[in-house]
Amino acid sequence: MSPAHVHEPTYAAIKKRLLEGGWPPGSRLEGARIADEIGVSMTPVRDSLNRLVGERLVALRPGFGFHVPHLGVIDLCELLDLNLALLRAALRAGGRSVLPQEEENACAGAMTVEKAAQLFRSIARRSGNQILEDALEAQNDRLHAVRCREEHVLSDAASELLLLEQLCSTGTRRELEQALRQYHLRRRRFAPQLLALLE
Q1: Residue 96: pLDDT above 80?
Q2: DSSP states of 33-71 as a string?
Q3: How many helices and strands in the chain, by DSSP H and E?
């Protein structure tokens, strides 16, 4: 295992590139090339890739090495369904989710993808359930690359998030659940277009 002062920055650099879609789905992740690009040895790269396999952001195929997972329409729809189910569970555990003022302000002016992650993180935090928070954070990571492309397909993605933020502050739990359902169903309908932008 590589020392933390080498492993953590290596892991962060690889994860950032994965989340931003720096490698197309299905791409082989060549450890030696990544190590050269980052300027580290193979050990922290291999350790980081194995850690990312555990987070399901990287796939390991015996005999073929590490790859960026290929996301199909069904896969994306299942990820969206899971995200919605986790958010519903968080709302039911924590009552009506109200965004703390400092979190709402922290989102102001941020990119739409960061607003979505922060909003869902806030809902999870209100549940008081750490396992649920961790699961929604993992979903934020797995959906990040797709969310980065939403505004190219869904021109009003920012206004959708604004509505969700308002409902978190002033709406009932039922209204928020219905809006979250619509948010996720809409992305299911546009799954092929969103995935085409990842390729």
Answers
A1: no
A2: HHHHHHT--HHHHHHHHHHHHHTTSSEEETTTEEEPPP-
A3: 11, 2
Residue whose C-alpha is closest to residue 187's, from 154, 152, 144: 154
Q: Flag whether pLDDT at 98 surpasses 70.
A: no
DSSP 16: H
Q: Kindly report the CA angle at 80 between 75 and 86, in degrees rounded to 5?
A: 125
pLDDT at residue 97 above 70? no
Nearest to 84 by CA among 183, 171, 162, 170: 183
Q: Rounded distance, CA 96 to CA 80, Å?
A: 21
| Mean pLDDT on 173-193 | 95
User: Residue written as tokens 């002016």?
Assistant: 109
CA torsion sign for 129, 118, 120, 100 is positive
| Distance of alpha carbon 73 from alpha carbon 78, whole angstroms | 9
How far apart, in whole angstroms, are the C-alpha atoms of residue 150 and residue 59? 24
Say which residues have a Cβ less than 8 Å from residue 61's Cβ, sequence separation at least 6.
Answer: 67
Q: 109, 14, 93: which is closest to 52 by C-alpha?
A: 14
Alpha-carbon distance of 82 to 87, in angstroms, equals 9
Which helix (H) or strand (E) segment holds residue 97: the answer is none
Give 1-29 pLDDT, tens digit per residue.
667 778 899 999 999 999 888 898 889 99
